[in-house]
Amino acid sequence: MGGGKTHLMIALGLLAKHPARRQEIVPELATRAGFDRARLTAFNGHNYPDHYLWGEIAAQLGNPDALKKFWINGPKAVAESDWKSLIGDDPTLIMLDELPPYLHMAHTVPVGGGTLADVLLRAKTNPAWPWMPGLKGLDTLKSLALEQGRWREGADGYLEKGPFPKEKTTVNITVQGTDRDTGEATLTLTPRHAGSNPQVHYSPQAQISMEDPVVSDLDNFRTQEATLYFLAVDPAGEHSTGEPVRWNNRLVIRHQVRTTAEGCKVELRVVPTAAILRFTLNGANPKEGQLYEGLFPAPPEGAILQVYARAGEAEAQETIKLSALGNNQPQINDGQPAYLRIPRLTIDTTEKTFNLIQAFREDDTTQFKGVQVIIGENEEAVILKFNARPVTAAVIEQSVRALRQAIGDDQASVQITIREGGHFRNGYELKRFAELCQLKLSPEVVLQ
Questions:
Q1: Nearest to 309 by CA among 278, 333, 344, 331
Q2: Which of 118, 125, 165, 412 has the most C-beta neighbours closer than 10 Å?
Q3: Cβ atoms of 430 and 338 closer than 8 Å
Q4: How many CB atoms lie within 10 A of CB 228?
């Protein structure tokens, strides 16, 4: 894209047009060329003539009417016989430069009766359009139109121009929190396109209707169901009813090694519930593993326990390292990636938070899950939850600075809570994290 192609095409054109230059510069090629002077035609894709690319080629070859029938009443594909008739037996070099911009302009998104490419071309070449701001005026216009909902851009890149038919009802679902012991989730349900007095029905089945129960508190809906469907309805009838929205609870698999009269045994549990619970001890796919029916013997030499749980349409899979009996120290390899799985870790002061951020700011491999950032204190505190989205220390730092700026207090206190552990670049970084947070590691929470 730095001019090399164009320079090469210019050189080819000069060599084709001037046999003396050809003999001087590339004598071996000149002896094999078998022609004297070649006709030249060149097209640059940043041009958009009314007679299209093929009409321009015909005009440069001195026969503008030869392909007129293929553009006079709209563009049509030129037949091979017409190309042969136009070129004939004369040596001819046709050079096409910067073709992608032309193809983009020829096949682009519709706007009104024309295309965005038509508008773009006129705006760049017609000085009678002084109102467009700056060099990227049309890009600015497009961005504003999309932001304000006047235009819409589809997944295929095509733009639609409003006014649009009214949207069907739907509902956004946000998890506010989950009880660690019971798995009960607290949801905020935000109906969209459902009028000023929306109703939301819910059911564990996909076949939900207006006969199903109505959510009484959209801001604090509590449930221990594994799967629920929500249907938003506009009682005023201004918006037609859309499709139900499915929500899956997060299944959490837990284990515990218990000492019994028959030796050490492993207990598995899932919150909030599990209709199917399977496991393997040999690294095989736990979906095809043994059905869990109660306590089973813990392997004396230790093992990698793979567990699969399913309830409703929610699924979970967990890898658990069972230590050799009598050994409660994790074996951490400093050079291998490491995973930390802890239910909750709170970094409760601003100083500790920034110590952690500083230690891992440049590490884009180490990521934390279930992060909650608290800015300020008491009733004026601002809480940002990343839920299941993994985030780096750099992202946490950016969030802290943005929230402090938003509330106008650059010195506001900061706390972070990590609810689902994290992934570390290597075991050494995991141990450094544990030391910073004064966290005691055990085999149950470390996986490599």
A1: 278
A2: 412
A3: yes
A4: 23
Q: Which amino acid is at 288?
A: E
Question: Beta-carbon neighbour count of residue 281 at 10 Å?
Answer: 19
Write down the pTM of the prediction.
0.54
Read off the tokens for 274: 């599990």
**Beta partners for 41?**
94
pLDDT digits (tens, 9 = 90+) for 31-79: 777 788 889 999 888 887 888 888 899 999 999 899 898 778 776 767 7
Report the C-alpha gap between 250 and 228 in whole angstroms. Answer: 12
Tokens of 333: 């390899």
Classify 351 as helix, strand or coil. helix
Rounded-to-integer distance, Cα 168 and Cα 244, Å: 11
pLDDT score for 215: 97
Banded model confidence at residue 130, pLDDT cuts 50, 70, 90: very low
* Of 110, 34, 94, 103, the residue nearest 75 (C-alpha): 103
Q: State the DSSP code for 391.
A: B
Please list, in sequence order, all residues whose beta carbon lies within 8 angstroms of the beta carbon of residue 220, skipping any fewer than 6 positions away. 176, 186, 187, 188
Helix (H, G, I), strand (E, B) or coil at 7: helix
Question: Do strands 92-97 and 39-44 pair parallel, antiparallel, or not at all (unpaired)?
Answer: parallel
According to DSSP, the β-strands at 276-280 and 290-291 are antiparallel
- 3-state SS, residue 310: strand
Q: Which two tokens stand for residue 395?
A: 């992202």
